Amino acid sequence: MSTTVLAAGDHFVLPRLLADAVRAAADDAGTDVDVRELTLPWPHTPFGPVGEVAEASGTEDELIDALRGAEVCVTQMAPVTERVLAACPDLKLVCVSRGGPVNANLEAATRHGVAVCYAPGRNAVATAEHTLTLLLAAARGVGDTHTDLRRGVWRGDYYDYDSCGIEIEGTTVGLVGYGAIGSRVARILTAMGAHVLVHDPYVAPESLRGVAEPVGLDALLSRSRVVSLHARVTEETTGMIGAAELARMPRGSVLVNCARGALLDYGALCDALDSGHLAGAGLDVYPQEPVPADARLLRTPGIVMTPHIAGGSQEVARKAARIVGAEVGRHLRGEPPAHCANPEVTRRPGARSAR
Question: Structure pTM?
Answer without folding.
Answer: 0.88
